[in-house]
Amino acid sequence: MHKHPFNSPHSADTLRRRLFIAQGLAAGLPLSLLGGTSHAQSSWPNKPLRLVVPFAPGGSSEIVARAVAGEMSKTLGQSVFVDNKPGGAGNIAMQEVAHSEDGHTLVLGHIGTLAVNPFIFPKLPYDAAKDFVPVTLLSKVPSLYVVNPSVPATNLKEFIAYAKKNPGKLNYGSAGNGSAGHLAFEYLKMASDVFMLHVPYRGTGPMLTDLLAGRLEAAAVGAPALMQFIKAGKLRCIATGTAQRLPQLPDVPTVAEQGYKGFEMTQWYGLLAPSKWPKANVAKLEAEAIKATRGAVVKDKLSADTALAVGNAGLEFEAFIKAEQARWKLVIARAQIKAEGLG
What we know:
About 40% of the residues lie in helices and about 20% in strands.
């Protein structure tokens, strides 16, 4: 009697494998994680991954990078180690990773390197769009608008009214020309049609020293650097740049809530791989990075730093970068921000 092909164990295994792959693809899993690629690709990574951070140690970028790298090391089969490469407004690190050939070097992208530098430097040593493939948006760090307590304003509306009555008399500081804090305040100036003088510093630390001492009236800074001073009453937060209120500052309304609909200003960090990487390797990295970022360990670590864990798909991150570029191109052009002092 002739056997039906599906009665053989080999055919049954084949059918089960096909069903497994079909179900996995329907669930949105990359083919590389379902055994649908060659052995060479499925064995990636075959050595530790190097995550290059374009900033000095100690800031929000390192907290985000180390939190995610630590969790990915548990599931990727190889360790992920963080390598800080500051300098040149992030351009040095971006150039190095763009031209890396080892297939195991990736970079922490940032609002500055991806959405600002392309519009303030006449020539970049990397192409933000062509040299990298977006993997996932890891985190958003809220920007807070703060004033010295001597300023007679308890909220953004009062501050804008005070600034309009005193045009050119108020100074705001930033960590430097073209920094996130510079952009954040120029964006607010553009939205509110108010005039204030910008005082650039060499870093957030020295700027905060003058703000706390009353030599500056205002600033926009990432939340982690400010929370202790706000809680101690040494600085007054008049607005958050987030889309929703922060749990850590429930009584402080957003800029959008105070009359500027659609306004959002956050620093953000995401994972990027060189565009020359095989698609299967990028897909595997994306799946593991999303899993790590959405996990409780990373969420808790970032929340303690007043940062939000995201973990979206690579295509969503790509669309986000394009939207941010469009937003900051306008702000940079209007404020006439140049790259002086950033190289």
